Amino acid sequence: MTGQRASLITIAADLDQTSLIKQPLDCARKMKTSLSPMFAALALTVAAALPVQAQGVTGDAKAGEGKVAMCIGCHGIVGYQASFPEIYKVPKIAGQSAKYITAALEAYKKGDRKHPTMRGIAGSMSEQDMADVSAFYAQQGQSGTPAELPALREASAQVTQLLQKGACVSCHGDNFSKAIDPTYPKLAGQHADYLYVALKAYKNDSHHTWGRANPVMAGMAKQFSPAELKAMAQYIGSLQGELKTVPESRFR
Ligand code: HEC
Ligand code: HEC
Question: Which of 33, 95, 105, 131 suits a disulfide with 242, CB 3.0-4.6 Å?
């Protein structure tokens, strides 16, 4: 078990640091020697960008549980860090809204989000895979009855003013956990360093390896300096919310 875990992490790190286009065969070769056929097959399809299909499939959390083998090497390890475009913690996705998870995966697949690793992974997923995996992560680690969230921590005068300028709560909800639309993310308690990377990616929306093209958030992020984005990210990341990283039992 320990050996399997170690090799998965090595591959994850490889995937993260390198250009997707020239790597898939190399990765596939390494994966074949150490991982399940499912993972190897995934790597081979990594470069094949399929067209995004129309919405309308229903996700099945149970089916999704059987499809997350390729995610847990990063999203199922507490504190696991990505190294591209800088070192930051891989986002928490357990407890995230299912519709937002799907929207994010579609954005990677379509290329609106440029992060190379996630583009490769999302590019290999069908619409049904995305819906199932999203349904699984939305309920993972959640009690079923939404807990009362604690009162919002007070922000510094600077951060209060920045959040007001961006009207962030008008979309992300009063406590950054109750977005006004299920395709908008919950933010409270997300890793602050990841939130900062995400905000910078919206600000630099056309950057070819890490930009995020999103008309709503580009307009938001471009109003602020990097230091201001970081201050907001640190505050939002310090809030208590529903997002988690749930370690997978097979890795314990
Ligand atoms: C090699 C490590 C790695 C693997 C494997 C991986 N991810 Fe990711 N994932 C990341 C990183 C790093 C990011 C942040 C990318 C960015 O900055 O946009 C991310 C981002 C995401 C996001 C966006 C989160 C948000 O808040 O917007 C979703 C959703 C996601 N991954 C789902 C998955 C799913 C589902 C799988 C398995 C099918 C998977 N990931 C496999 C590393 C990984
Ligand atoms: C008009 C609605 C709206 C407003 C106002 C808004 N957001 Fe967003 N935000 C969104 C949407 C929609 C997304 C998802 C975009 C995507 O799919 O990439 C998002 C995504 C994000 C993300 C990425 C989260 C992740 O998990 O990757 C962060 C961070 C964020 N917003 C922070 C903020 C901050 C800080 C403000 C205020 C300065 C703000 N938002 C204002 C709608 C909004």
Answer: 95
